[in-house]
Amino acid sequence: MACPLQFVCRTTRTVGLVLFYYVFSIGITFYNKWLMKGFHFPIFMTLVHLAVIFGLSALTRSILQLWTGKPRVVLKWAVYFRKVAPTAMATALDIGLSNWSFLFITISLYTMTKSSAVLFILFFSLIFKLEEPNPFLILVVLLISTGLFMFTFHSTQFNMEGFVMVLLAAFIGGIRWTLTQLLMQKAELGLQNPIDAMYHLQPLMFLGLFPLFLYNEALNLSMSEKLFRVTELRPLLYSLFTLTVGGLLAFGLGFSEFLLVSKTSSLTLSISGIFKEVCTLLLAASLMGDELSMLNWLGFAVCLCGISLHVGLKTYYSKNKLPSLQQHNRSSKLALPLLRQESDQDSTTDEDEGKEQEMVLN
What we know:
By secondary structure, the chain is mostly helical. It is built from 13 helices and no strands.
């Protein structure tokens, strides 16, 4: 009786964690799209989100330090600017352009185009030798590229400006997650915990986006009645409240992804991310009125096949490398940086896959 009970409890916990992840991941997509209808300052919105995430990360680090009695990692300034800055700049541009694109395109086109980020992640992973070349990668690239072409071909709600923005964000996202993987693999930095990584990334992300805000939005925002030229306190409080809620959703997304991976596995995150794309498109069609033809749906299915093949290949090669990784870990005094205690059966590459798939599938 114990085994069935344990299975039911484990299944219930996994479903609960997946739903928790869906709430934040799908929620922030629709929330940002809704907010952009009345607040046309996506870069400023992103800056507020970064400030909220930094504040919550600092608070979480303080709570963890009091709870465990162990000090959290703090990087030296020289190491901070040299090692963290490239990842922070790429992350800032990825998020900024993604939010900016909501001014022009539908949620369905955004979801489909952003899913193509796996192509660029594969490209940069091969350049940085994080991915081993194999013939199946060609099939992955062909499936995703064909699916994206079919989805955008003769789309009734296609917008070139927004499409270019989100495609550029997907390209930069490939750089972002490749650099993030390299950053979190460096054991000497001590940024394996996503809370510590978010804490160190947000300030440089803020500094990276701030010049773009000054150039593109600062003047218009200073003359807008949304914030600085309000005549009543209520509209100002409403704007600040809606922006803060977006920051809470952004922090919750990162936390829910980490919680799902740590309590289950990176494979669970990857598979649930695929189904999340389907849910997002269905909700966009039913709630937002996005118009999708049969060819668009077929293109989306082809793209999902490519992403699913990529996830399957990552899982297969990760499991095959597991014995050699475990043997190396036993014979080495330096533990593998990403080999966590979640399960002795999870490999370093499995953990990396989870980090990589966070935005590939978001």
